[in-house]
Input
Amino acid sequence: MEEIKPQLIKITFDGIEVEVEPGTTIMQAARKIAEADESQGYLVPPAMCYYKPLPTSGGKCRACLVRVAAGSAKDPRPMPKLVPSCITQVQEGMIVENTTNDAVLDTRKSIVEFLLINHPLDCPVCDQAGECHLQDFSFEHGSAKTRYEEERRTFEKIDIGPFVQLHMTRCILCYRCVYTADQITNKRVHGVMNRGDASEISTYIEKAIDNDFSGNVIDVCPVGALTDKTYRFKSRVWFSKPVDAHCDCEKCSGKVTLWYRGDEVIRVTARKNIWGEVNEFICNTCRFERKKTSDWTIEGPTKVKRSSVISANKYRKDLIAKPDFALKLAATQFKPIDDEREYTTDIETVRHQSIENNDKANHRSLLPQNNN
Amino acid sequence: MTLMERAYLPAIATGMAITLKHFFKKKVTIEYPEVKRYLGPVFRGRHILKRDAEGRERCTACGLCAVACPAEAISMVAAEREKGEEGLYREEKYAAVYEVNMLRCIFCGLCEEACPKQAVYLRHDEFIPVFSDRDQVIWGKDLLVEDMNNRYTREAWTKEEARSLDLKRANGEATNVVPRAIP
Output
C-alpha cells in the first residue's frame, strides 16, 4: 500500500522560511524555527493563555497577535486585522510578520497595558515573582510606567483548600486552569463566572481541587493567581536551587523539579520546557507530600537560562561565561612549562644554582640595552 | 652649590621658620571619634530599615536587595502577617528575619536602589561602629529597623530630588530644605 505523506506547507515567518505540516498554527511554526536555531528565540510570539499540552487553549489573551501580510499563495491578500498566532492555522505561501512589523509591537505594548489594568502590582509579595510569565511579558514588551489611575478590581478571598492558594486579583483570565481541570475531571461544573471585568475563576476549580492532579493548576497559571500554599512566603524563587529528580510514582510520571534552599526541599514542581509549559503533569502526592531528598532520585541541576533571575547567585560552571580569549592569548605568548627538567633536592646545589641565577640576573639588569 | 647653600645654617633657619609658622596655623586633623566630619548628603553609611509615617515596617521581604547585593551580604526570612499586626507591618508579608553581614557589605548602595518599597537605605550620617568580635558583625532587625522616636531624616530621598536640589544650590538659589523622615 502506498503511504500517503501529508504535504508540507511552506510559510515565511519574519523572513524565515519554514516547512510545517498542515493544521499547524503560526505559533507552532514560529516555535519550530526557534527550536531549530536557538538564536531565533526572540521571534516567537509570547503566549499568556495558549498552552500546548492543553488542547483548545489559546485565543484569549491576544498577546500573540501577528500580522499576516499574505494569506496564502492562492489568495495573497493580507488579512485585514492582526490575528492571534496561537489559533490561526498556516496556509501554503503565508507570509507572517511579527517582530518586523511595528504595528504588531505597538499592539503588543497595548495588550500588556490591558492585562496590567487590573493586575495588582504586588510582585514583591507574590510568590510567582521571578518565574511569572506576565512579568516577562511586560518586561519584554510593555512600557515602564503605568497610565492607569483608577481603582483596580478586588474580590472576596476564597479558600480553596490546604494546598492551593487563590488570589483572584492577580488573575488574567487565561482559562488555563479551567482547561486543566477539564482534563483531570470528567464533569464540567463551571469555569469562569460573570462577564467582563467582573469575571472570575469559580466553583469549577473548587470542585476539581480534590482531584489528585489538581496541583497542576499552580504550574499552569502564568501569573501568581494560583500558588502553592505549602510554599507560601517560604522563599523567593531566585533563592532556591532547582534540581531535576524523579521517583517511582504509581499515579504520575514522577519526573519533577525540586527546589532546594540549603538541604531542604521547599517546593516540588513539574518540569517545564523552554516555552514554560509542563509536558508531564505530576500528582499531588509528589507535589505536596514528598518533600524529603530521600524520596527522590536526583538527576542533576535544572538548566536555567543565564538571563533568568533564578540563575542569580548560583555559580555553576556553565552559568559563568568564560571567554576562551584569555587562554588563546596565553597560548601564543607563553611557553608551556617544561616538566622534564631535573629536580634537585640537594640544598648545596640549590643554593649554588640560586646564587648563580642571581648573578645572571644582576648582570642582565646592568646591561646597557636594559638601561636606556 | 652657591656660597649660601654651602653655608648650611641659613637653610636650617628657613626650614625651622616653616615649622614655626605651622604652630600658629589651624590644625587639619580632628580628634576622631569624639569629633566627626560631615560626610556629605550622599555618603553611604550603615543600613536602616525604614518605617512609614504610621510606624509600620515597609520591608516586605521581596528579596530584591539580596539578589542585587554583589557581596551576598543580605539574607532574610519572610513571614505572613497575622490578624492584628496591621499596625506593625505594611503589607501582608514581612521580613521576620533580616540580616546584613557587615563584614561582607561593601556599602555600594545597590540594595537601596533595588528596593521597590523604599524600605532599605544607607544612612548618610552614621556608619558601622568599630567591632572587635565576629558576632557583632551580623546586624539583625534589632539594630536595623528605624526607631520612631529618633527617625532618620534627610534632605532628599530620591536621586531626582537630590539632583534638583544640587542644581538649585549651584545656581545660588536660597534652599532651606528641612530634612524629613519619610520619602
In short: The CA atoms of residues 100 and 246 of chain A lie 42 Å apart. Chain A touches chain B at residues 122-125, 129, 232-236, 238-239, 309, 312-313 (CB under 8 Å).
